[in-house]
Structures are given as structure tokens and as C-alpha cells.
Amino acid sequence: MQSITHREFKTWIAWLDDQWNKPSKSDYYLMQIAGYVSHVLSKKSWKLDTYKVNFQVGEQKQNKDDIDRKTEASKARWRARAGLGREN
Fold first, then answer.
1. CA separation for the pair 34, 11 (Å, rounded)
2. Contact, 87 vs 79, CB < 8 A?
3. From CA 51, how far away is CA 42, in angstroms rounded?
4. CA atoms of 78 and 84, how far apart (whole Å)
5. Could you tell me which of 3, 48, 53, 71 has the fewest CB atoms within 10 Å of its CB?
6. Does residue 18 have a pLDDT over 60?
7. Which comes out higher in pLDDT, residue 60 or 36?
8. 29: closest CA among 54, 7, 51, 45?
9. pLDDT score, position 10
10. What per-residue string of b and e applies to 44-77 under the rule 16 or more CB within 10 Å gives b?
């Protein structure tokens, strides 16, 4: 078994994050099968994108105030650990 470097791992994870919501050819086949089975069982019409699953990567819906609050809390913890108090 060949191990990968940290840089290769980070590159692979970035590629996966980029490709996560882009269905491959086999994903479209699976969506088509799911739609056809659903159509046969329920007699309702369907579209291919009805069965597309969207994945959320990380916390993408944070507002600026929330990020600023978390940043300041983190800085305060590190200052306390370093013995710097509240000074910058």
C-alpha cells in the first residue's frame, strides 16, 4: 500500500469538494433508475433532477457577524493561553 503526502491528501480533498455536487455518468443512471421505479409505483411524472442529492460541504451559510464573533473568541483564548491578557 502506497501512502500519500499531506499535500496530495489536501489536493485530493479539494478536488472532492469541487466534484461533490457534479453528478457523474453513473449518478445520472442511478437517478434515472430511481425516477423510473418511482414512476412505475406511483404513476406520477418525474424529472431527472428530482432525485439529485445535493451535498453541503462545511458551514457555508455563516454571516460575517458570526465569523467575526468566533474569530474574536478564538483570539481571546489564544491570548489567555499565551499569557498576554487582553492586549494585542
1. 33
2. yes
3. 15
4. 9
5. 3
6. yes
7. 36
8. 51
9. 93
10. eeeeeeebeeeeeeeeeeeeeeeeeeeeeeeeee
Q: Is the pLDDT of residue 55 over 80?
A: no
Give me the residue spans of the domains in the chain: 24-54
Choose among 18, 25, 26, 27: nearest CA to 51: 27
H helices present in the chain, as ranges: 6-19, 25-42, 64-82
| Segment 62-87 mean pLDDT | 81
What is the pLDDT, as a whole number, of residue 11?
A: 93
With a CB cutoff of 8 Å and minimum separation 6, the contacts of 87 are 79
C-alpha cell at 5: 503526502
Q: How confident is the model at residue 35 (pLDDT cuts 50, 70, 90)?
A: confident
Separation of alpha carbons 12 and 51, rounded Å = 27
